[in-house]
Write a structure and sequence with these properties.
15 helices; Serine Threonine Protein Phosphatase 5, Tetratricopeptide repeat; mainly alpha
Length: about 325
């Protein structure tokens, strides 16, 4: 009788001690089954795959060392499953859900060291945020558009399209200083990635705005304001002779003769086929004359041909007595 009691006690102790091992074995099995289930449905049902893979990850983390292998396997597939689900949403033209899943793919890829997936989503996400920005822009929701464009830039700073989108959004809001700031950034980024067309688009946009306002100020005889606008054009194009000529004209109205000379010289240096050099020389001759530099004035007037020749001839012969 006593012997039977001892045997029963030993059996009970053995069962109690073995329970954690039985439980652990069962849990490892559950983790493996959850992982296998998730892996098998990754392409056909990525949402279901994610549910199983996160379940496998949770169980494995509770197992500590015993679950390490399954944990690493689950982590290797989770970013890919998020990316696959994102592509499914994209095919359904659901951009918000697409971006949500891509952001999760990016976050988990960083966390789990999946550099391949990270590189792929870092290429896709900025383009989609730019698309979302364009959509909001078309709907005239310019603040929301700017939000999406900035998210695109946050991930890919050397992507010129969202910079231009921000500039155009600020234009619609009549925030022209910010528009010019982002047009300048568009040009810088576009040039850095050799996107010549995008840089040209931004440059033309900035010049058109500044020239229009400069011309308007000049017509209203607000010469200092005109000078300010024309000077700002040079931040976008330093080799347009017409801009220097316009500056020379307006500096002439303010009687800043040194500036007239300086800008006339630059106008001649960067003159294209459409710029009337004779007018520039006549303007320069007048400025030199006002500065008392008669020799230089005579030389400048001597190059003022065409419609300026009679007036230049008079100044040389009757006023300056040029040799």
């Amino acid at each position: 009788m006593k012997t039977n009691k001892v045997k029963f006690l030993i059996l009970a102790i053995t069962l109690v001690l073995s329970l954690p091992f039985i439980s652990a074995a069962q849990t490892v099995k559950e983790a493996v089954e959850a992982y296998n289930s998730g892996a098998s449905m990754l392409k056909e049902n990525p949402a279901g795959a994610l549910e199983k893979l996160y379940q496998a990850l949770e169980i494995s983390e509770e197992l500590d060392y015993d679950g390490q292998e399954t944990k690493l396997l689950a982590q290797s597939l989770i970013p890919k499953a998020h990316q696959q689900l994102a592509m499914n949403f994209y095919r359904d033209k659901n951009l918000p859900e697409t971006l949500d899943q891509l952001e999760k793919a990016r976050k988990t890829a960083k966390e789990y060291g999946d550099n391949g997936t990270l590189a792929r989503v870092d290429k896709i996400i900025p383009q989609l945020y730019n698309q979302m920005g364009n959509s909001e822009y078309r709907d005239e929701k310019f603040e929301k558009a700017i939000e999406f464009y900035l998210k695109s830039i946050e991930i890919k700073a050397d992507y010129p399209d969202p910079y231009l989108g921000i500039a155009l959004s600020y234009e619609k809001q009549e925030n022209f200083d910010s528009m010019l700031e982002y047009l300048k950034k568009t040009i810088e980024v576009a040039n850095s990635v050799n996107d010549i067309n995008k840089a040209d688009d931004a440059q033309k946009k900035a010049k058109a705005y500044l020239l229009k306002n400069g011309d308007s100020a000049q017509k209203d005889k607000k010469y200092d304001e005109a000078i300010e606008f024309f000077t700002k054009v040079l931040e976008f194009d330093k080799v347009d002779g017409t801009i220097y000529f316009l500056l020379a004209v307006n500096y002439s109205e303010t009687k800043n003769w040194d500036k007239v000379v300086d800008n006339s010289k630059l106008a001649l240096e960067y003159a294209n086929g459409t710029l009337d050099k004779a007018g520039i020389y006549y303007q320069m001759g007048t400025a030199y004359q006002k500065l008392g530099k008669n020799t230089e004035a005579c030389e400048a007037y001597s190059n003022a041909s065409g419609s300026y020749s009679a007036a230049a001839e008079y100044q040389m012969k009757e006023v300056l007595k040029c040799n």
